[in-house]
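User: Assemble these into one structure.

Assistant: Restating your components, then the assembled model:
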Amino acid sequence: MRRRIQRMAVLVMAVGMLISGCGKTAEQQEENAKKDKTSEAVSEAVQSDGTEIAEDMQPGENHILVAYFSWSGNTKTIAEMIAEETGGDLFEIVPKEPYSDDYDTVVDVAKEEQNEDARPEIDGTVDNWDSYDTVFIGYPNWWSDVPMIMNTFIESYDFTGKTVIPFCTNGGGGFGNSLSTIEEEAEGATILDGFAVSGSKAADAEEDVKVWLDTLSFPK
Amino acid sequence: MKKKIRIILDLTMTVLLFFLMGYQFWGERAHEWAGAAMFLCFILHHMQNIGWYRSLGKGVYHANRILLIIADLLLLLAMAGLMISGIMLSRHVFGFLGIRKGTSFARVLHMVSAYWALVLMAFHIGLHLAPMMRMGKRYIKKKSVELALCGIGLLWAAYGLFTFIKRGIYQNMFLQNRFAFLNYGESKLAFYGDYLSIVVFFAVVAYLMNCLLQKRSIRSWNREKSKNQ
């Protein structure tokens, strides 16, 4: 009898372990992602000069650029939401040599570019760069960092005095290490709190994008 | 002396395990070197315990021994998965190998085997905890203190189960996520507190399972003996 009880106990524990793997939903992830965002939001928000720049603003002129690189379309979706909300101009960072449509291939290529510290060439340039005060920079998280083409982009322009606002789509790693890369690359820029969203939720992120934009004060 | 080295190595591996689980906190370079160090410790650990493999074919297979063998072989598998994928993904330590293909697969393999290794390593610790517990018992004379410590251990384990579920670790283990959720902004204390609790949970489960099965094995062995006499 005792032996049977013991056998049961072991069985119950084993089953318990298995069951413990079946009770959580995507909501939890979302909640975590929000937490991630708020904690990221504690990064540097230097906005004291924001009002000053706003005074220089010419009425009727647009001072906002939304520059983004998108492979799957998720980042593009967010970029368009931001452009619509802020009235900014869109600029898509298009590689001269297009990336493969195959996910696994792109993953390999992205890794190799990162290993080689590559600077993939960009097709096209931003017109009237000097007229923009605020630059939103959007990209997917590739290997816990910006895709290397973002380095090419940032290095191609003078960011001194600009306000930079990053946004990023990802699988669960948030910004990864990309914020420090942007900080290093965009020398002389003021970097505001960014927005990171899971790629699968990009299409439904409109409300979150609005809420985030409302918390920022940047030259318009 | 040999015993001391053994304990130091075991502790080093435990510390490395926690360091490696917090990939998002320490940067890629440190992660790779810690991984390489774990690889080395893993080999040393095997050299020390090579007798375990030698004895595999010998003796009687009691239930607790079977449990131990299954758990340890699974751990071996997870570790192999981690080392192979880790080398494939490495850019700082093994970058000179120039592995260019299959990084997408390697990433997923690394993620899945990392969380399995966490659970199995905790289980492994738990299964080998009995001698340490006996040693501890020698120092604790009062029954009330012993009971209190047991209570704390069980409560801690319960919290570990809670946070294991809350953090959705099983989702990474069973590939319900293509990407693990890494919170770069989280406090290290909260992260490591939770991961330590998860290790405590699986170690306690393994320890209790081992105790129960061991008692059973001893009893059946005694019964056999008395029957033969």
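Chain A has eight helices and eight strands.
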